[in-house]
Amino acid sequence: MSELPAVVPEDGLPPRVTIYEVGPRDGLQNESAIVPTEVKAEFIRRLVDAGLPFVEATSFVSPTWVPQLADAAELMRMLGETGREMPVLVPNERGLDRALELGVQCIAAFASATETFAKRNLNQSLEGQFVMYEPVIRRARDAGLAVRAYVSMCFGDPWEGRVPIEQVVAVGKGLLDLGAGQLSLGDTIGVGTAGHVTALVRAFEDAGVARDRLALHFHDTYGQALTNTYAGLRAGITTFDASAGGLGGCPYAKSATGNLATEDLVWFLTGLGIRHGVDLPKLLDTSVWMSGQLGRPSPSAVVRALSGRV
Ligand code: HMG
Ligand code: MG
C-alpha cells in the first residue's frame, strides 16, 4: 500500500501549514517511567531530521512538579547549540534563568483560561499568573528570545466545566499585551468541537488579534482533534501543534490524553495538498522506535495503519 494519500486539494484552505511538534515535551511529561536523556535527545534529533520546523524540547519547570523533565538542562546540553526551532516551556523567572544560561532562543509561557487550572498547574490565581509572567516575558524579549504563550482549558475545564469564550480571549490578549509573539490555544482535555473552534478564532479576530498570531493545540481525547484542525484551517489558522505518535497528556489535568498525532495531521494535510515539509516515512519510523522505547503501541490511527498494526 502507498504510504501517502491521494492529493485532492480544496479551495479556500491555506497553501502551507507550520507544524509545531510537542512530543518531547507534552508527549513525555506525563510518562511515569523516567525516559533516559539520551533517548529524549535522539527522539528530538530524529524529529528535526524528519523535517519538523519546531520541536518543543522540554520544560524548565519545578522537578518536583514534573519529575520526567528534571533533566531539562542535561538534555539541552546534550543537544548542543539550538535555535528558535527548539523552544522550551518556562513558568517563572527561575525557569527563564535556567533557559538563558543554556543559550535557549525561544521560550513558551503557559497560562490558564480558568482559575482552577491556574492554581493546579502553576500554583497561581488567574491574575497571579500574569504577575508571574510579566518579568519572564519582558526579560526574554529584552534578551532577544522569541516568546510563544499557551492558553490552556480554552474549550472546557474538568473542574469548572464550560469556559466562556470572552474569558479565553481576555487571557490570550493579556499574554499578547505582555509581549508574547504567538498564542497557542489549548484544548487541554480534548472536549472542543468544530463550531467552537470557529467561534473562538472569530472572537480573537473581533478582538483585533490577527490569525497569523494564533496556533491551535488539540488533544484527541474525544477523537475531535482532526475535525477541529479542519475547522481551524477553514478559519485561516496556519500553525498547528501535534505530537509524534499521539503521545501526551498533562499531569495536572485529569482526563487529558494524547495530543493530535503528528502523523494523522501530516496524512490529512498531504491529502489536501497543503505543504508542511515533513517526511512521513521518517516521522513514522521515529514514532515506531519511540513506542518501542516506551513499551506500548502508538494510539495514532495513521501510525497503526502504516506500521501494519491494523
Ligand atoms: P510552587 O511550588 O508554587 O513554586 O510551584 P515555588 O516557587 O514555591 O518553588 C517550589 C520549589 O520548586 C523550589 O525548590 C523552587 O526552587 C523550585 P525547593 O526550594 O523546594 O527545593 N522551582 C523550580 N525549579 C526549577 N525550575 C523552575 C522552578 N520554579 C520553582 N522553574 C511552579 C510553582 C510554577 C514552579 C510549579 O507550579 C510548576 O513547575 N508547574 C509546572 C507544571 C507543568 O509543567 N505542567 C505541564 C505543562 S502545561 C501543559 O501541559 C498544557 C499545554 O500543553 C497546553 C494545553 O494542552 O492546554 C502547554
Ligand atoms: Mg498540551
Properties at a glance:
single chain; alpha/beta; 12 helices; TIM Barrel; 310 residues; globular; binds magnesium ion; binds 3-hydroxy-3-methylglutaryl-coenzyme A
Architecture overview:
The chain has a nine-stranded parallel β-sheet with strand order 2-1-9-8-7-6-5-4-3. It is globular. It has a single domain, classed as Aldolase class I (TIM Barrel), CATH 3.20.20.70. α2 runs antiparallel to α11. The longest helix is centred in the middle third of the chain and has 17 residues. With 310 residues, the protein is α/β, with parallel strands linked by helices. The protein has twelve helices and nine strands. Bound molecules: 3-hydroxy-3-methylglutaryl-coenzyme A and magnesium ion. 3-hydroxy-3-methylglutaryl-coenzyme A binds next to α4, α5 and β6.
Question: Secondary-structure blueprint of this entry?
Answer:
Layout: E1 18-21, H1 23-27, H2 37-49, E2 54-55, E3 58-59, H3 72-79, E4 88-89, H4 93-101, E5 106-112, H5 115-122, H6 126-142, E6 146-152, H7 165-178, E7 182-187, H8 194-206, E8 214-218, H9 225-234, E9 239-242, H10 262-271, H11 280-294, H12 301-306
Parallel strand pairs: 1-2, 1-9, 3-4, 4-5, 5-6, 6-7, 7-8, 8-9
The protein binds 3-hydroxy-3-methylglutaryl-coenzyme A and magnesium ion.
Residues 26, 186, 188, 217, 219, 250, 259 line the site of magnesium ion.
The ordered H/E elements are EHHEEHEHEHHEHEHEHEHHH
Sum up the overall morphology in one term. globular
Radius of gyration: 18 Å
Gross CATH architecture: Alpha-Beta Barrel
Mean pLDDT: 96
CATH class: Alpha Beta
**Helix content bin:** 40-55%
Strand tally? 9
Q: Estimate the strand proportion.
A: 5-15%
What oligomeric arrangement do these chains adopt? single chain
The biggest sheet amounts to: 9 strands, parallel
Q: Using the coordinates shown, work out and report the CATH topology.
A: TIM Barrel
Low-confidence stretches: none
Q: Report how far the terminal alpha carbons are from each other.
A: 13 Å
- Spell out which ligands are present: 3-hydroxy-3-methylglutaryl-coenzyme A, magnesium ion
Q: What is the CATH homology-level superfamily? A: Aldolase class I
Widest sheet, order of strands = 2-1-9-8-7-6-5-4-3
Q: Based on helices, strands and strand pairing, what is the structural class?
A: alpha/beta
Total of DSSP H or I helical runs spanning 4+ residues = 12
Count of separate structural domains = 1
